[in-house]
Amino acid sequence: MTESALVRRAICPGSFDPVTNGHLDIIGRSAALYDELVVAVFVNQSKSSMFSVDERIDMLTEATVAYPNVRIEAFQGLVVDYCRAHDIPVIVKGLRAVSDFDYELQMAQMNRNMAGVDTLFMPTNPEYSFLASSLVKEIANWSGDVSALVPPHVLQRLAERAKHHQRATDE
Ligand code: PNS
Questions:
Q1: pTM beyond cutoff 0.70
Q2: In the chain, what are the domain boundaries?
């Protein structure tokens, strides 16, 4: 039996700009199902982000400190190429609602077609079905309360960014 047959690995790819409690729900539950879970931060040059890749990795590292089998990495390019290079057969994706399903299904089928990499869909905890990093950023930028939606250290970083945002809009 090869090492890859013994070690069950999976990957949770995403932008994580920033990580939310919804992401952490999926990461924690996935970490319980696999021996090793790579949380992979997608480096997307064409999409503007609030936090740099290093900041996103720092926030994820702190948020997942309780899971010894979780590793945080950055990746560029196709997720299936990362999977092939690191011997990862499964992508785990959280599904918040039916609206997520169409695009996620298309990507899952494409990834399977390209490289034989399977996707496991995990329904999010209903408590987080409305939660998206984009909404968290928008609300935090206008000093709305997102304290129930992100870990405390992420809240602090959002508050720092919000100060800059408000200063910039006041000028
Ligand atoms: O958190 P996001 O922005 O919804 O994550 C999307 C992500 C990064 C998981 C997805 O865009 C992705 O897998 N990108 C990597 C590039 C790739 O493999 N594209 C082809 C998908 S069929």
A1: yes
A2: 3-130
Q: Give the other-Cβ count within 10 Å of 141's Cβ.
A: 16
Topology adopted by domain 3-130 = Rossmann fold (3.40.50)
Give dist(CA 76, CA 157) in Å, integer: 24
Residue with the smallest CA separation from ligand 1 atom 4 is 14
Q: Where are the alpha helices (DSSP H) in 32-92?
A: 53-63, 79-85
CA–CA dist 77, 93 (Å, integer) = 18
Residue 17 zone, left/alpha/beta (φ > 0; ψ -120 to 50; rest): beta
pLDDT in tens, 123-158: 999 999 999 999 999 999 999 999 999 999 999 999
Please work out whether the CB of residue 132 comes within 6 Å of at least one atom of ligand 1. Answer: no
pLDDT in tens, 59-80: 999 999 999 999 999 999 999 9
CA distance 150 to 135: 12
96 a catalytic residue: yes
Catalytic site includes residue 47: yes
Q: Is the CB–ligand 1 distance for residue 15 below 6 Å?
A: yes
